[in-house]
């Protein structure tokens, strides 16, 4: 059998190659560095971390911690290397960057079934996995665009924050669509939640928004602002009324409690079918995360908002997964060409690694005549894949692991920490059962 090709030697590509090799496949990893460098990377090692040295929380009551616990159940090589390179960081899995990338590089390059080839690849491999990350080369990006269509590949994130539905104050927020349009199927109310502001509240909000501290972009992450991804704080700086005549315009939105339009309105759009996650429409931002919490909690009805995802604007090549890919993140016209990592529309080290792990597992299954498998949506990994399968293609944006993605519990739990602990217990039990049913051999099951 000819070797399997993995394009990209980052976290996702390294994990995918390892999973394939451990299942008996010969693998060629294509890494263009150092033949062709990037604006971000400094070395030629695999799995070089360029933005942060933390994989975030290890606590299973935290979404990132739960995802890591699930990945450990599946035998994640990258996390094993992270453990070796761990440095003090409280409950976070924080690593020494040099030791970490060195450990992954050694594990991958010393595997007898893995070969690393240096140089740029401009074609899609079949069978193979594309895990080239947010800095995908222009040549390969053009190949992907030609294969999937111009609208299937984006080059910049313009992400608005997402809040949890059970943290919204529904005594303040009302449901309606502008002029009664875009009503959801089967419902008499509108598709949006609306946070009404008085003049005084709006003025205070604009003052806070324009004075808030912004994140400084890396040189390689410099994004040219254009109308489609203008940060909310930049719009506010153009003039105090700019937002009120833009994403915060109250026209056509009558508050049923007052019988009139508010001075300004912040709209929330449903992000998932279950209505657990709500997106702040038009509030893409470069504010620092603590500032986002402080300023956006000034919005009426969001005083106690739980942020499932913070807003951002940065350079990031990613696919419109729900529009362009199969459920296991493969080409529709060739299921043996899989995608993994940030290119698929996930955010974060852990999420990228997890998609690489599952891509390796599923390509191995396809090569041995089996069907691809995806964990159930009661698990964090399965829920993340469901989002990339079922999200509205018109509004698709990259997503990180969060509890708003997973199926709700059967019963209501008021204490949020207890609720997350129970969701985690259910997820880990479901993942162990799924692993035993799909990934273990008959001998291992016995």
What tags apply to this protein structure?
alpha+beta, six-stranded antiparallel sheet, FAD/NAD(P)-binding domain, globular, 19 strands, Elongation Factor Tu (Ef-tu), domain 3, six-stranded mixed sheet, 446 residues
Notes on the structure:
The strands form 5 sheets. A 6-stranded mixed β-sheet has the order 6-2-1-7-19-18, covered by helices on one side. A 6-stranded antiparallel β-sheet has the order 10-11-14-15-9-16. A 3-stranded antiparallel β-sheet has the order 3-5-4. The chain folds into 2 domains: 4-156 and 315-445, FAD/NAD(P)-binding domain; 162-310, Elongation Factor Tu (Ef-tu), domain 3 (Beta Barrel), CATH 2.40.30. The two termini are 30 Å apart. Mean pLDDT is 89; it is low at 182-188. It has helices at 11-22, 63-73, 77-84, 97-109, 138-148, 199-211, 232-238, 289-296, 321-324, 349-367, 380-390, 416-438, 442-445, and strands spanning 4-7, 27-31, 54-57, 86-87, 92-95, 114-118, 128-130, 153-159, 162-164, 174-175, 192-197, 254-255, 260-261, 264-270, 277-280, 307-309, 312-319, 330-331, 334-339. Helix 2 (63-73) packs parallel to helix 10 (349-367). It is α+β, with helices and mostly antiparallel strands.
CATH architecture term of the largest domain:
3-Layer(bba) Sandwich
Shape descriptor: globular
The number of E-state strands comes to: 19
Helix percentage range: 25-40%
Q: Order of strands across the biggest sheet?
A: 6-2-1-7-19-18
Coarse structural class: alpha+beta
**Cα separation of the termini:** 30 Å
Largest sheet, strands/sense/barrel = 6 strands, mixed
Any idea how many domains? 2
CATH topology value of the largest domain: FAD/NAD(P)-binding domain
| Uncertain residue segments | 182-188
Mean pLDDT: 89
CATH superfamily of the largest domain: FAD/NAD(P)-binding domain
Number of helices: 13
